[in-house]
Amino acid sequence: MIAVRTFAPPPVCEREILRYAGCRQADEGVLALLNECLVEALPLLSYTVCFEEIDPKPFAAKSFQLARNLDGCDRVMLMAATLGVGIDRLIAKYGRLSPAKALLLQAIGTERVEALCDAFCAEIEQETGLCARPRFSPGYGDLPLDTQREVLARLEAAKRLGVTLNDSLIMSPSKSVTAFVGLSHDSTQKTDKCRLCEKRDCMFRGAI
Amino acid sequence: MTVRELLQQNIVRLDGGMGTLLQAQGLQPGELPERWNLTHADAVTAIHRAYFKAGSQIVSANTFGANALKFDDAELDAIIKAAFDNARAAKTRDDQFIALDIGPTGKLLAPLGDLDFEDAIAVFAKTVTLGVKYGADLIFIETMNDSYETKAAVLAAKENSDLPIFVSNAYGEDGKLMTGASPSAMVAMLEGLGVDALGANCSLGPRQLCPVIRELLAAASVPIILKPNAGLPKSVDGNTVFDVLPDEFAREVAMLVHEGVRVVGGCCGTTPDYIAALTAETADAVPLTIPQKAQTVVSSYTHAVVFGDEPILIGERINPTGKKRFKQALLENDMDYILKEGVAQQEKGAHILDVNVGLPDIDEKEMLTRAVCELQAILDLPLQIDTADATAMEAALRRVNGKPLINSVNGKEESMRAIFPLVKQYGGVVIALTLDESGIPDTAEGRVAIARKILKTAAEYGIPKHEIVFDTLAMTVSADQGSALVTLEALKRIRTELGCHTSLGISNVSFGLPARDAVNSTFFALALENGLSAAIMNPYSAPMMQTYYTYRVLKGMDENCAAYITASENFAVTATAAPTAVKTETESRSALQRAIAKGLQDEAAAITAELLKTVPPLEIVNNEIIPALDSVGKGFEKKTVYLPQLLMSAEAAKGAFECIKAAMPTGQGNGPAVVLATVKGDIHDIGKNIVKLLMENYGYTVIDLGRDVPPKTVVEAVRKYNAKLVGLSALMTTTVPAMEDTVRLLHEKVPACKVMVGGAVLTAEYAARIGADFYAKDAMEGVRYAETVT
Fold it and tell me: B101 in helix, strand or coil?
């Protein structure tokens, strides 16, 4: 069955936010602006995930890389996570008024939704006693982005989370993530997600 | 008996879950339940029959997701026809009714999603038309989690049928819709639209929905619907089980019936057993009379604002009258300037924003609609639509996400004939000016008489008096010293004798006098004491805000004087605004450069204003602002300055430019035109906005076409503004083909114009392949390229 869970806000990692904002070195001004953005954004966020344990075969049949990611897993969860529309409105607002704030809010949203996914995976690891593989999302590698339609329909994400898809396959709210989470007894695949990733020209590679 | 008659005197029972039961009979995950109307007609009829047998007086046809986004025309027609055939086959009595069930489209409306409001109306309209054709007794719009989509569905229902409309929304655990609306905001909008019943369904069990239902009961004057889930889902041995059983469910729902709920049923997890238990539990329940609240209320997509004793502030600054800079913004299509005025007024404490964008040389209908859409995309205040053009008024009212104030109607026959039908169709509280064909009466008695006439005519249109707010017209007191007293007297009589709320455009009173704020704020205080409900005023005016906060303290409306004390910090700042330490011109020049480098926007603006007293505007631009920006830009290119810092500096420079723009004659100092757009299908605009900011800094006249822009629109803009450069942005691989189309069309139609492209998925090679003249890897590169081609 599809379950819906709400999480407590995970701790904020400012360094990660600045990384997403393309800022390797933050001066006082940037930090002050970041703080302003956090104060405004954090109260607007909800941290909700819906998920279901699935048989991954129909999905894995479409993608060699997903099949490899899930190879040898004992169980597979399909998940969708979202922060809700509040931050989208805020980003839209500052997109018009202050691109600097909009940039930082984008980065905050990205860091927050990733942290939510991490919190979900940690909880699932604890409940199952298994190790989670790096999350694998539609659009990664050779898994077509339009798999998103099936994933969201399967999880009834529109109804349960308010996550919908537009014609260009973008999710609304924008700070949403869907992913396959493979769970196995083998903990060796858990290590460095950058090393396992195929996108070798990624600007964030190795930065973690 | 009709549905409306049934609703009047009874507790009305709806049905329970459909999807749950179909799944039990083999409906697969991902399979569309509406197709079962055709493939499993008997199974669907059996479910309807079981609900009628259990005591449902209204069942919903199996049409929840039957819409044109999911099915083609032929299949949609067949499905809706079959759905009604199936439901009718289950009927045993004449007083059993069948609802056309309408759920969400599954897409989010723009601006949050990409479904256009009018397109959403068109989707719902198809379903409604078919429902009417195949015999629906009523339209049940349910499980909507977005106020805007709800409004689209209600308009489609109103415009394509005369059937009763029931509306039920899905509230989350926070007691709000997913897109933010509170129950009272929904009541305001839906009652304004004239629905027959409204309420809540799905998402939660009856106990968790209690607070939502109580808020609905407290605000609404129409019957309230409650159709909760059978509690919350749990997994037992891999099966989904809901945690509230029929008897408990029936007891909890019945408890809310005793509090006033009139229409009951069940949603996910409920079965005919639940409805049977509910029928038994509510058999003897006496329907409570629904108190008519007769509240004057407007709303935004989040909250309602109720007229009462607490004064309401309507910000007047979005209005070009007498504002050179605002006019210029309108003529240049500079929506950002208008949005800034909106946000600033909200920050100053306005409760409602007046929106007036009328100028002789612009298409008011288009501009007003756009202003409304853009304002409600970024701020959550109710809007007051202010136009003398009825066509523009209608277009804007349609698009408002909530229940607006309508500014205005007056006692002239022609005015009432134009405006009242709009109030009835779209909902809204209308400001009525006490003037008519013979002008503005110079006595209070005359103005009250016009008010009575307006009320009488409104009633003929079915508009009750609480939907009308009277403006007794503040006249210029310097021209006639008795005029303010007449206005106040009329105000008092309308509030006390007619029991209507009132508003005034305060600042008219001081026209022609020096130190106008002093006159305005005193008049404001007098008006409040004489029954003013809402003031159309300038929230930037410290004396006006002081009057507002002081009035609330003195009238016992401000507990512990808390709001006053908080606000008084700003009074103090205004009162003692320390003159900035006098600097020499040279000091100011270097201070401006430093402020820009450090990204201090307010400081940059203040220093610029100071410099403008002695230095010509263009000299400040060329000798201070541009060099400062250039040094930051070079730092960015050398990677000693990062993107957030670059943007902060650009914003500081923009603050300085705003001052300079205000000091220069209109149209002067405008650089070459550059057209920017995010391509068709793409809704990401942060990159484009960054480029825009920097280009403006470097003096270009940026024509920002926004996002999701069709190729044709780009070509038209290039021609209109004679632009030599277009910048296109696309974030996703899926929208690069649209970029390619746009580049091709530009090269074909306006070959002299260069095209630069940028965005996350692009590379220089890819840009060359789709025919672009230049690939800008970041905003600075875009500026450098622009310098070479314009």
Answer: strand
Measured CA distances, B227 to A94, B20, B102, B252 (Å)? 39, 15, 15, 12
Rounded Cα distance, B161 and B154, in Å: 10
On the question of pLDDT at B579 being above 70, the answer is no
Angstrom CA distances, B735 to A178, B408, B704, B710, stand at 21, 44, 19, 12
Contact (CB, 8 A) for B313 and B349: yes
Q: Where does a domain end: B540, B563, B598?
A: B540
Residues A61-82 pLDDT 10s = 999 999 999 999 999 999 999 9
Give the bridge partners for B48, in sequence order: none
Residues B67 and B205 reside in one and the same domain: yes
Could you tell me the pTM of the whole model? 0.90
Question: What average pLDDT is seen over chain B?
Answer: 93
Indicate the length of chain A as a whole number: 208
Which member of B108, B339, B685 has the closest CB to residue A172? B108
Is the predicted pLDDT of residue B27 greater than 50, yes or no? yes
For B299-325, write each residue's pLDDT tens digit.
Answer: 999 999 999 999 999 999 999 988 888
Whole domain around residue A26: which residue ranges? 3-196
| Closest chain B residue by Cα to residue A46 | B174
- B621 and B649, same domain (yes or no): yes
Best CA proximity match to B142, nearest among B82, B198, B208, B204: B198
B446 and B325 share one domain: yes
Task: Of B170-179, B406-415, B651-660, give the lowest mean pLDDT range.
Answer: B651-660
Q: What is the CATH number of the domain that holds A50?
A: 3.40.109.40
Task: Write down the pLDDT at residue B97.
Answer: 98
How many Cα atoms within 13 Å fall on the side-chain side of residue B388? 5
In a domain, B199, yes or no: yes
> Which amino acid would we find at residue B221?
S
Looking at residue A208, what is its pLDDT? 45
Query: Coil, helix or strand for B60?
Result: strand
Q: Of B699, B679, B687, whose CA–CA distance to B647 is shortest?
A: B687
> Does a structural domain hold residue A201?
no
Residue A205 has pLDDT above 70, yes or no: no
Taking an 8 Å cut-off on Cβ atoms, the answer to whether B644 and A103 are in contact is yes
Cite the beta strand spans of B319-379 per DSSP E: 352-355
Do residues B164 and B4 lie in contact, with contact meaning Cβ atoms separated by under 8 Å? yes
Residues B142 and B63 grouped into a single domain: yes
Its domain, for residue B127, covers 3-9+31-225
Q: What mean pLDDT do residues B541-562 have? A: 96
Q: Dump the DSSP string for A178-203.
A: EEEEEEES--GGGS-HHHH-S-TT-T
Asked if B732 lies within 8 A of A170 by C-beta distance, the reply is: yes
- Report d(CA B110, CA B686) in Å as an integer: 17
CA B287 to each of CA B209, B210, B236: distance values in angstroms, whole numbers, following the listed order: 20, 18, 38
Q: Write out chain A residues lying below 8 Å of B734, CB-based.
A: 145, 168-169
As a whole number of angstroms, the distance between CA B218 and CA B724 comes to 60
Are both B643 and B723 inside the same structural domain? Answer: no
Is pLDDT of B228 > 60?
yes
Contacts of B112 in chain A (CB under 8 A): 85, 88-89, 172-173
pLDDT over 70, % of chain B: 98
Q: How many domains does chain B have?
A: 4
CATH of the domain at B116: 3.20.20.330
**Is B188 a residue whose pLDDT tops 70?**
yes
CATH number of the domain residue B310 falls in: 3.20.20.20
What are the tens digits of pLDDT across the range A168-186? 888 999 999 999 999 998 8
B contact test, residue of A96, A108, A149 with most B CBs within 10 A: A96
